[in-house]
Design a protein that fits this description.
By secondary structure, this protein is mainly α. It is built from 8 helices and no strands. Helix 1 runs antiparallel to helix 2 and helix 4 (115-146) runs antiparallel to helix 5 (148-166).
């Protein structure tokens, strides 16, 4: 990490950490569209546009984060932070998967077509790129400006808002769905705060979406009432996990 005296002021870093990854994603999408057109068959369904936006945001976040903080301060840590992050995030995965099995009817355990491309998209773009931006770069910048707890909540809210727009789990755009994503984000934000790493939640997030929607296939597009129940049950448990992870003292912070 560079010395604080050589870094931009904390408020400036927060502004740049929020805005430059967005600009990077938009620019990358425009460049690819102009130079090569739509990269057909690269990713499943219509996810190429989302992938380019998230990849651009992740790439800019990595460049800025390495310049300002370094890999460790971005949360790219192995060892105990990795294993602890996997443990905490797996609790949410289990709840989400069990609620999915109970609430929605399924075609047994069938693997969707394009399984490999689906996993690449989920892991590299929805999980790694987005978390590198929100819980890596933005979290670290806000922590320097307004403290680690504010960083965990604010970066989590951004994660949830982006997920509401781009994630496959967002089948319907209503308040119930939005509440689910806004609970999911701070839950992961507090995992980042308590463990000091993002790699555990990155792995679990990709596996959670993969197993829930691409190995256990729904019989048809889920009905709104079923989705409302799924979102409500899962979000309630996420709030319980947030309550349990909420730090009691500064010694609980792992920035």
């Amino acid at each position: 990490m560079r010395k604080p005296s050589t870094l931009p002021p904390p408020a400036t870093r927060v502004f740049l950490s929020f805005s430059l990854p967005i600009i990077g994603g938009v620019v990358l999408q425009m460049l690819v569209s102009l130079l090569v057109g739509a990269p057909a068959n690269l990713l499943p369904d219509d996810q190429n546009g989302s992938a380019l936006l998230l990849a651009g945001a992740g790439a800019v976040s990595l460049l800025l984060g390495l310049r300002w903080y370094g890999l460790s301060d971005l949360g790219l840590r192995g060892g105990r932070p990795l294993y602890a992050g996997i443990g905490f995030a797996t609790l949410g995965w289990i709840v989400y998967f069990v609620a999915r099995v109970v609430v929605l009817s399924s075609q047994d355990f069938l693997i969707s077509p394009g399984f490999g491309r689906v996993f690449i998209y989920l892991f590299l773009f929805e999980a790694f790129s987005l978390q590198l931006w929100t819980f890596g770069l933005l979290f670290r910048s806000v922590a320097d400006w307004r403290g680690p707890l504010t960083a965990a909540v604010s970066s989590g809210l951004l994660f949830g808002a982006v997920g509401f727009v781009f994630f496959e789990e967002s089948f319907i755009a209503d308040l119930n769905s939005f509440f689910f994503f806004l609970a999911w984000g701070p839950y992961y934000g507090l995992i980042r705060l308590r463990t000091g790493g993002i790699l555990g939640p990155v792995i679990v997030q990709a596996m959670q979406s993969l197993t829930t929607w691409h190995i256990l296939l729904p019989e048809a597009r889920p009905l709104p009432d079923e989705l409302h129940t799924l979102y409500a049950v899962t979000a309630t448990f996420f709030l319980i996990f947030i309550w349990r992870l909420w730090p009691k003292e500064e010694a609980d912070y792992r920035v």
